[in-house]
Write a structure and sequence with these properties.
The structure holds two protein chains of two kinds. Chain A contains 18 helices and eleven strands. Chain A is an alpha/beta fold. In chain A, the strands form two sheets. In chain A, strands 1, 2, 3, 6, 7, 8, 9, 10 and 11 form a nine-stranded mixed β-sheet that branches. By secondary structure, chain B is mainly alpha-helical. Chain B has a domain of 199 residues: MetI-like (MetI-like fold), CATH 1.10.3720.10. Chain B is built from 14 helices and no strands. Classes of the chains: A alpha/beta, B mainly alpha. At the A-B interface, helix 1, helix 11 and helix 17 of A face helix 1, helix 11, helix 13 and helix 14 of B.
Amino acid sequence: MNKRLAALLSVMVIVGSACTPAASEAPPASGGATQPAGTQAAPASGKLVVWGRNYTVEEGKAQPWAPDPKAKFEAAHPGFTVELSGATSGDQFNRIELSQAGAVEDKPDIFQLDNIWLGQFVDEGITANLDSYYANWADKSDIVPAYAESTKVKGSQYAVWFYSDIRMMIWSKDVFKKAGLDPEKGPTTWDELFADAKAIKDKVPGVNPVEFPASSEESTVDRFYSYLYMTGSNILNADNTKAVFNDAGGQKALQLYVDLVNQKLAPKAVLSETADDIYPHVFSGATGIMLATVGDGLGSLPDGFDVSKFQSTIGAALPPLCTGCQPATTAGGWMLAINSASDNKDLAFEYISSVTDGNNMVPFEVERTRIPVRTSGLAQADAFKSDPYFAQEAEAAKVAHFPPFIPKYTAMIEILWTGMQKAINGDLPVKDALDQAAADVDTLLAP
Amino acid sequence: MGQRALGRATPWLLLALPLLLLFLFLLLPYLLTFYYSTTSATIGRLLNVQEVGLKNFQAVLSSNAPPFFSVVTITAIFTTGTLLGSLGLGTGLALALHSVSAGVRSTLLAIFLIPWVIAAVIIGYTWRLIYDPAIGLANSVLGAVGIGPIDWLTEQSLAIAALIVANVWAGYGIVLLVVSGALANVPPNIILAGQVDGASYGRIVRRVILPAIRPTFLLAALVALVSGLNTFDLIYAMTRGGPLYHTETMALEMYRLAALKGNVGQGASVTVILFTISLALAIAYVLIWRREARKWS
């Protein structure tokens, strides 16, 4: 009997080790958006709890939160202290979600969020409606126009932009030189892109003329959007209920990818490559042109690359344009939001306003090579002179677009990248692949 | 009387904490997974969920993105490849080590076990770099002899084979360890008897050594089998199940549905199916092991 029990327990442990529980814990959704936060009677003393990213609170480095904004806030509100803490991206997401479920001791008054989380947090009722604050906020006119509307969900403001990153095309100057091309001038149109790629293919054997990520992960769609936006297309319709990426513009953008692969100007291996895989290819001269990468300047420099080596090795510019298209790129970045459960919303907005001020942000953005989201920040080109491509990034920021902030975003992009892969792999024509993906997205988004 | 009662209760008191931890972190998650597989639970709503019966299983089994049959087939190929590769490499190395002196053997054994103690995610990213079509080691080596470049992780059959190689490298260590232990217990006189009878080394291995370590060999096979079935992190790091779901195993599908799509109900239903398959394999192992044990006793 004992042997049988031992055998049963052994089986349970062995089988158990084979199966990961699908989910262990997550907070319940409270559902629904919150009502606009009005002015409220704040307690006379207490603490303003701020949850930021780890590198924004790093000791010995420029911090956007302190010392000035923190000191100013605490002087204006005696008895109140600002309590800062930082977390990695994944931990930040989890602790915000868990705070909603009461699974962590503290709740933040202010939290930093990736722009792609906004739709989910609004849907779950975590973020406070900021319409009433925006209505009287003098600094709102300082936000770069391309960014100003992107903190809105269903017509209401739920966050304040903090800082950004921009998608840029990059190229290897060494490869351009070997191909007899001007290393200081990347392609500005799709025609030039094909011409440059053919020159690389003919004159620099063993080098991939062009690469773009097309594997089963987010960078595939994130780097594709710029080419979609420039055609006038979009991902979803205005109220985010239906896919529109399968329109003529979307097809034109995906056809670019397919043509590059079919003409052997880009390897089919892009189907298994992420943006992070391709980036070192360009730096090592194994690839001539990467259609889009995160252009946060020096922030992504590989080991061994200083500013001068970066500038002499890599060129960067806005993604090349198709005939009749408008300059466009994709932006990502971080925002600040106020917890809908905060008792200190007025104070929180006051502190956010002080922290995100263009002049306050610049030292942090220079040190961390982030892109300002305030016109006053972008105007300070001198401060950013250590970033050789700041001028191009500032130009790109003016034509930035954003992915839709919807709760089902991660499920939606899986459908989109699978459709893109079908076209690139030659399984379906571009139109059929996008139509099929659009139908699946419509089903996903249906109430 | 009191002392006797205390004496009887002592084992249970000592076991209370481990049993509680076992319940909280092993049994309870299993039970919750079974429960969630019959509900409409999502990542944002795990409480007050609606009962949906077997609809999640129906949705998973009838899915076209990717078809469940395809996922099961890929899982079966990957698991079989891992099993055969791990057994072959682990046993081969164990036999090779068995033929060298004890001092050399322990040094080499420690070296050969290194991959087994490295985290699977690190192994995954390392092999991803090795397979990089532009700057990877694999194509650099092949390029030196005029072959390639090869898109290792793009075409389905090649991608699955590449994943199997990486997983065998990551997991042969446990087979090597178990089989090495068993070989140490094979009586040298039966090997000597074979040699005296003029049998070749291959024949001695086939007819003498392997039968002698059969029960241990079965255990190593089960561990390698479950390891193949269970592999998530290495595949996630290398291909994320793509492109076009060409390398998506059940473990990957479980994660994709529950964590990426937020559909905890469907993710849990894949977990239950995987659990059932693992349970069947484990029961088969126990039955075979008991039969073997009877033979030997």
